């Protein structure tokens, strides 16, 4: 969720700090591979290799080097097996070979352009490696296949926001706000509020920040964003002080945020002094 950059007094979101895209989709893809590979092991050698790769990559002691070796052999045996390319891409990514991973996942998409996991993983890898413009196309294709998938919505919203596509980003966040996983969470509404701040539409920004605050009154970033909005953009020191104090209260037990609290204390003093003049 984007929040304040001290001491510049800007709102920001926090969605990137909440959602990590690497491992959950990896696990989902592995499950998909397992389900499709377990049907006829004796007949399909690649299925056995992919099952071995899955086993190596699973659990707290996952051995991605071993998984990569099995996946590479599966690709060598059958260049047209999209699942093998997906597994190899994931293994290469986890072994730090990002360029090779992106090449392999693109091969998977070329072999099966309607495979949701291949498309999503392609978009995710591009997004996470700062190739935002390239990530949009595969993510949109994945969205067509599974428009209810929350991970796709998050990535499309974030990608659109980073590319300056305000209306698209707001639309994806609005859809995410209705998703069963996030209908009671503050993140999507906060992100829309941040977008409206960037457009200098402060009344709408306030409406969305208030909506986020109602959903999560204990979220310190939403409280901080409200404080910044009232302070910097709405010129309302009383409400700014209120939410800055709320931030102090919510983060009191977090020593890592002490520098932010110190800066806010000084800001509160300035606002209080100006109120007395």
Description of the molecule:
The protein is mainly α and 277 residues long. It contains 15 helices and no strands. The protein has helices at 15-18, 23-37, 45-57, 64-77, 82-94, 98-111, 116-128, 132-145, 150-162, 166-177, 187-198, 202-215, 220-233, 237-251, 258-276.
- Spans of at least 5 consecutive residues whose pLDDT stays below 50 are 3-8, 16-24, 39-44
Rg over CA atoms: 23 Å
Which word captures the global form? elongated
Q: How many strands appear in the DSSP assignment?
A: 0
Q: In percent, how helical is the residue content?
A: over 70%
Rounded to the nearest angstrom, the distance between the terminal CA atoms is 36 Å
**Annotation field: number of helices:** 15
Element-level helix/strand string: HHHHHHHHHHHHHHH
Q: Report on the biggest sheet.
A: none
Integer average pLDDT? 88
Structural class label: mainly alpha
Residue share in β-strands: under 5%
Question: What structural keywords apply?
Answer:
277 residues, 0% strand, 15 helices
Structure at a glance:
By secondary structure, the protein is an all-alpha fold. Helix content is 72%, strand content 0%.
Draw up the topology in text:
Elements: H1 15-18, H2 23-37, H3 45-57, H4 64-77, H5 82-94, H6 98-111, H7 116-128, H8 132-145, H9 150-162, H10 166-177, H11 187-198, H12 202-215, H13 220-233, H14 237-251, H15 258-276
Helix pairs in contact: 2-3, 2-5, 2-7, 3-4, 3-5, 4-5, 5-6, 6-7, 7-8, 8-9, 9-10, 10-11, 11-12, 12-13, 13-14, 14-15
